[in-house]
Task: structure prediction
Amino acid sequence: MSKKKDRFISACATPVRGEAGRTGDWRAERPVIDPGKCTPSKTKKPSCYLCWLYCPEGTITRGIPVEIDLTYCKGCGICAAECPTKAIRMESEEQFFATECPAPEPETPKRRRRSRKAPEGKGK
Amino acid sequence: MGTVKLINGNEAAALGAKLCRVQVVAAYPITPQSKIPQTLAQYVEAGDLQAEFIPVESEHSALTVCISASTVGARVFTATSANGLAYMHEQLHWAAGARLPIIMALANRGLGAPWTIFNDMQDSIAQRDTGWMQVYCRDHQEILDSIIMGYRIAEQISVPVMVCFDGFILSHTVVPVEIPEQSEVDAFLPPYVPHLRATGGEPININPVVLAEPCANASGERCPSYMGFRMRLQETLAGAGATIFEVGRAFGRAFGRDYSYFVSEHRCEDADIVLLTMGSLANEAAVAAESLRERGCKAGVVAIRVFRPFPSEALRRALARVKHVVIFDKNISYGNEGATCTETKAALFDGGLHPSVTNYIVGLGGKNVTAADLAAAVLKAMETQTQLAPPQWLGVAV
Result:
């Protein structure tokens, strides 16, 4: 008696960008690169890229300049710790709130809904 | 036919792995298994075995290396005992859940505390829930044979196999063992093809987080939930009986020693009372049964060879007409009783069978157990009719 071959023996998946969600939202500090100290930026040549190598989340692109994808960077600070020229500073997220998460526009006053019960202390 | 050599159980295990042309050996030494990785390292160094021998820094790493190597298609082998097995516990769960055909030789040894280096089965029994197939060898020949059969079964059903044998009693004693020819083993074992192919072209995530409900993968294909994968492991392991039987039968045809059975029975056809045990103790039990027969007691022996999957059917058949079962466990599930006793009683219950059952805890920490001890225990059990008594401890000098 042969059973239909079950193709699911153990679990596997195709890696999908951002499948763990927007992990950048977890950040308390973000890496900021000083192009005056970053070797690829200074030399205008692909070089160093130790930050790319060490990033546990693979958010860094080996460009000129080096790019860090802030949608997914968790702010662990390993890139800053490993950078041989100390070109990366970890800066608090708070200072970016004003520009990146502006306060919402005040709501235009809505028409007050007819309420079943008369509000206390006021005439109908 | 093979060559007969005088070897010990450890050498038999190492030879088994060598004959199976294992490609990666990752193991850490621990008494009484140390000679297994040592012997394999010697084979590799001499060029007699084409394998990577990886001297890892711990047993946890040993099994982790095996998991990785097996995933990419290498036939792998490891060996450990007692606290070493305990150290790799989380990876035992992983290897089974990842459905990898890893073979482990397990020289049974008691766990600390207090420290012991000597034999009992607490180490492997404590891992019976992990999803590994487990066999308990009653002699040296079975160790070698079980490793060869292990690879064929494991690679067919994608389940790891633990080949257990009593530390010192089998690992260190020397007896004649028939070593099959390499060509015969090559003919018996097809090459290993992993069920999951990491080709290096498209990346894959292996064993990612799997949620409680089935969901679609990136291609839109519906994939099982965590429970779905775990159910598959249970279905495969619990349903492996036919494969184990067929491989045991094929082994008999190829090498002259048939293993198409889960439990072995000795004089059970007319037995009133059966001694039930596992491993090397089965040999003592057979001698005890003969001595009991001489004294007019119709005794038989049932020895469990395959413990996982648990041979409930085979036990019910073997014990169907027996009035009294005396179960000797070289282990105990603290707070309850010996594991073989609990599981056997459950199998009997499911079959509506209610013989009187006595449980003896024996041999812990290497305490010697003789045929005379077993026979005396059986006579005492019959005398006192110790049904519903807690497990009895045999021969404990406080």
Observations:
- The CA atoms of residues 152 and 190 of chain B lie 8 Å apart.
